[in-house]
Fold Tetratricopeptide repeat-containing protein.
Amino acid sequence: MTETVNADPPIPTSRWQALGKRLRGWVSKSLDLMHFLTERIMGFLRLFATLGLLLIVLFVVYQAVESSRLVLVKPFTVPQSMSNSHADAGRIIANALKQELLLAENDIYNTVKRTSRNRKVNIGAVTGNSEDYLLGSDIKLPETGISINDVVEFIASIFGRRNITGSVYQDQGKLFLQVELDGRIFPFERDLAGHDTNALNMDLISDMLREARIQLLSVASESHNLYYYCSGEADAVEHSDGQLSEWFDYCSRLQSSQMTPNELDGLLNDLHSARVRQMANGNDTLRHILGQTTGNALDKTRLLCPDYPVTKVCKANATPEAGQIALRLPEPLRAPAAMTSLFPALPDASAFKTDSLTMRSMIRVAPVSSAPLVELPSVRTLLAECANSPPAKPQDMLASNSTEGDATLLFNNNRPLQALEKYALAIQQNCGNVFAWANLGVLLVSADPPLRSAEEAQLALENAVSINERIDWVQNNLCIARALAAPLDTMESLINNDACNAARALSPANKVILDKQFYLAVAERYLSEGQYDRAATTYQAALSADRKRDCNTSKAIEKLALLETYGVKGAKASACAILQDALPLPGGKVSTCEAKLAAFPCP
């Protein structure tokens, strides 16, 4: 039997096998370690990417929250002719607007700082930077067509951030600019006369942007709107239901041309109260507005109650304004009674005596207290001065608006002579003040004070129409002035005058009110001319379609009662019928003449 014996392998071969086995084990362990490290690194990278993305999102959200009260100016849309010459035209215009807004905010800051107690003004700006938050924000997200910037805009809009957008275009020799914010579109235009239609024309655009900045800031911020509204630079309250509505109410009451001395006294008591001062404490803007509003209210006391500094009470003066007229304007010559016409007979130079009307004096008023005479320029003089005067500057326009408001306040409080002086001053400050011209014309044809001059009124009202022909009541008063200058027999036919037709075309819904104003004025002239029956009939016609418990109704029924004493039978009964049918004012308002209406004696 043969026994098989396994021979040991050669020593070198066994060593190589052992070495290979150890090497394979080391490689396997290394691969396992690398796999472990790779998983850990990838996990770390995924965590880093997640944290990074989260930080980016948090940053965008933070910026969106921080800019929630801001407005950002976006590049404007411009015509291709401009973009061909100026590739960045839209961004240039946006930067110019942003600069205008920042300058306007800086003006507010400097103004409030001068009245700040601690010189630390806490006014928040609303104009933000238009630069993107992230680099590469215009990169599109894969397979979506949505850019990172779109995502940023969406998130920011959720938190209330708003954008100012706009466009520029040309048409029929004019350059137009439209700016949009919060759904509001503000249009501006300038003539291109002498300008290259293919150029950017930044001088015209900058001028329009400068004009837009107060409106934009008023819409963008309630506090900015309050500042501009109370200073008279903004006409409208854009945030009537906001947190500062009470402060808007103070300024609205002060700016009302219907304010009486008693109402002014109540406003001053409110402004001086501890509660209002506590509300303004710690807020530089409100403290500045309170001081400004209080100062303006005290200025009004000089007009309505000059003794307020002594009595500390503003009350109506029981004595009506009295004055001595040193120079009375002549009435224009009327056409002979036989000559009837549908149009008024306009006077020529022969209607006035050369020594009765000068170019420097329309009227000289001396109060009963023998104060110095006040000389006022005639309408002709005002027109001549305006023909040679440069356009009013912004500060002159503001001063003119304030003066015109004081004049209307004086007239509504039975101070026609002082009002006349103020209207003339408002025109001298700004010849383009359409309301000063128009109200001057209305005052000159007023029947109550001894100032009536239909011809001078026509000049003032015609100039107001030349400034702005789109105001219905101005056109209607021009029609009334022409009717008052016409012969009695043709006076009522002037309701078909082009001015009356223009007024009703501008505001068809107000036709009844405009007709009422016309016939009330006609009735006043019939009364002054002794045509009592025709006056009574016209008063009734004026109130036939519009009877409200207002001052017009009060005045008309008082005149009808007076006509009864002049022998017009049934005039007072008609007055009582009108009063019985008169409706309350809409919105729960109460007329200042309600006390007279309630006291009118009717069976």
Notes: The first strand starts at residue 71 and ends at 73. Residues 132-137, 322-372 have pLDDT under 50 and may be disordered. The radius of gyration is 38 Å. The first helix runs from residue 11 to 66.
